[in-house]
Amino acid sequence: MEKFFFLMFAITALCSGLAVVTLRNPVHSAVSLMLCLVQVAALFVLLRSPFVAVAQVFIYVGAVMVLFLFVVLILDIKKAAIETFPPVKRRFVGGVIAVLGIELLAFIFASPFGTAPADAAETTTESIGKLLFTKYLFPFEVVSIILLAALVAAVIMAKERQR
Amino acid sequence: MLDTATLIEVIIIIVKAWLLTAIIFSLPMPLTWLERKVAGHIHVRLGPMRVGPHGILQPLADTLKLILKEDIVPDRADRFLFKLAPLIAMIPAFLVFVAIPFGENVTIPFVNREVSLYLSDLNVGILYVLAIGGLGIYGIIFGGWASNSKYALLGGLRSAAQMISYEIALSFACIGVVMMTDTLSLLEMVRAQAGGIHHWNVLYLPIGPVWFVIFIIAALAEMNRIPFDLPEDEGTLASGFHTEYSGMRFSYFMLAEYVAMVSVSVLTVIMFFGGWHPPLDGALFNFVPGIFWFMAKVVAFIYFFMWLRFTLPRYRYDQLMTIGWKILIPLSLVSVLITGLMKI
Amino acid sequence: MSNGSSRITDFIKKALFVDFIKGLAITLRYNVSRSITLRYPDQEKWVPYRRFRGQHTLNMDANGRELCVACELCAKACPTKCITVIPMEDDSGRGIADRVAKVWKVELTRCLFCGYCEDACPTRAVRLGRDYELACFDLSCATKNKEELLQPQSIPETINGGFVVKAKFVRSPEGIKVVPDLRMSKKRLL
Fold first, then answer.
1. Mean pLDDT, residues B183-202
2. CA B335, B338, B342 angle in degrees (round to 5)?
3. Closest residue, chain B, to A49 (C-alpha)
């Protein structure tokens, strides 16, 4: 049963991921990306971590995609559909993608896979919270500072333009 | 593989899901009637009176009319998204109810079987509701874009901006409730408020009322109701994102809007008004079943939202943004601090 | 100084939603107040005051004699010239004098219900009555002649008017009519 659901979600995620890069219309790409992200969230549910799943939907689908769409909607769709992206040599792009793919595969096969059993007995939200504020406190704070920097930068940019 | 006990469980869940969907699907009918009646009486009119006694069958007549109307897809619209958008708007509104509890377990008479009054008690219930509830906005955005009309597009854009601005305040309000009750599960949240009106979160002094006000304002903006219904502002945008929609597709948007209103009322009751707990902890109050208290509170809030709609004028767009970013978000940050201090 | 304190009161007012609550109280009061809707063609009908100027009526005296003496003053007074009077001689006692109207007709499409004919009438024969449902399906009913105008109107002179009564909406081959129920127990003030 679980395998069936996994296959369903995974295949949908892959197909919609492909659609994101192949579709000509940016808005259609955005829809596919949304679908892809929701499928990934479903996979998280299968992995017994509803918090991550909900956070995925909440942040990526709910907030980030709305911002994406906000920009995409004001694009001239017809022009954007004709243009090729990125505007450089195809061969070069292919090379970069190949290097990135090999790197990713290498990491996947190098990492100890499936040897870390998740502690399902604990409430995941609680354990995530505890981990964030004890073991991973430093990375957590670093991430917050990066986000704060982005926030301040955005405010300053808006102010500069006003003058 | 499946023994009898699991089979019965599965059947119960299916029946519950079916019942819930049926109820929620038919809820907008009495609600449109109620809204028009409330509107009428606030305007010192009578409202619909001609179809059935006191116009009670008016929604049926309206539905019939909407079904029989021509289904128009504008020329050069994005046909696929145009047809998809109403469904995207409608489905999340229904999905929200998966996590919402309506009461403690009840025993069905005759069969003598205990049944829970919720589909699933997610331990991240409130986050789930926020996340899924937020998806409804895509229906509005896509509907506005796919219509190939500038008014609809502007409605969609406004909606996107409004959504981003108020989602933050709404989430903060939920964080406030989570801090007050120490749980993310909606069921536990209600249990934490048992024992009379002074235990309800809205009277968690001094910060409870502030959270309640933040939540109500942000929720009004999230469900696009007056005074924050900028996406469908008739005065400036024809009727916003659904300008080009007609017939059943239009009614899906309306359906989503009403279901959103119900879910916001339900959430308000669960988060701030003690869910199915009676206002006083006496034998007489406990005798009345919890579901009754729950429904009474929800109906009161639905009336409150309608009452607001016919009292307040619509905000201007810049006022909307000012309220969101310059008042609600700083206020909720301060409130988080105060709530944290109270919890120490 | 006063500016500062008024700003503080303004802030407190805003923070406590004072104006919102005032507004909500007003709408709530209206919500529970009685509606002013007149459910006109279906169930209710407005009975006008006596001073109301509706369709013309020609009066008769207590013995059933026509009061009109066909002096044509009404036709002269009429600003739109919508009244036509043709006199004739008749000593059979139809009218109060020997001179009666052979034709007395009014074109309601042109009449502006000013009431000058009423003022001009020396015998108080013509009056503007209280029938106001004058719409019809063709032009034939736009001209009312003497025979029709001599019929008593639906609301008798004895009723003062100025209230709403229950009424019945009647559909017939001749057209549609709203028949008021003039029993005084059924009336309500607007």
1. 82
2. 135
3. B124
Query: Are residues A129 and A70 both part of a single domain?
Result: no
Q: Which residues contact C36 (CB under 8 A, 6 or more apart)?
A: B44, B45, C190
A62: in domain: yes
CB contact under 8 A, B45 and C30: no
Other CB atoms closer than 10 Å to residue C106's CB: what's the count? 26
In chain A, the number of structural domains is 2
- Contact, C104 vs C149, CB < 8 A? yes
| Sheet order of strands, C143-144 included | C83-89, C99-107, C143-144
Cα–Cα dist B137/B240, whole Å: 13
d(CA A137, CA A124): 17
Residue A157 belongs to what domain range?
Answer: 123-163
Which of C42, C38, C45, C43 has its CA nearest to residue C161? Answer: C45
* Cα distance between residue A45 and residue A24, in whole Å: 31
Q: Does one domain contain both A79 and A127?
A: no
Whether A66 sits inside 8 A of B142 (CB atoms) is: no
Is the separation of the CB atoms in A45 and A120 below 8 Å? no
Give the separation between CA A63 and CA A147, rounded to whole angstroms: 15
Q: Is A4 on the interface with B (CB under 8 A)?
A: no
- Residue A24 sits in a domain of what CATH number? 1.20.120.1200
Domain membership of residue A24 (yes or no) is yes
Q: Is residue A101 part of a domain?
A: no
CA dist B344 → B203, C73, C79, C121 (Å): 19, 98, 89, 94
Q: What is the ipTM score, two decimals?
A: 0.77
- Identity of the residue in C17, C27, C42 whose CB atom sits nearest the CB atom of B307: C27
The structural domains of chain B, with segments of one domain joined by +, span 72-95+123-343
The model's pLDDT over A32-74, given as tens digits with 9 standing for 90+, comes to 888 899 899 888 888 877 888 888 888 888 888 888 887 777 7
Same domain, A73 and A147: no
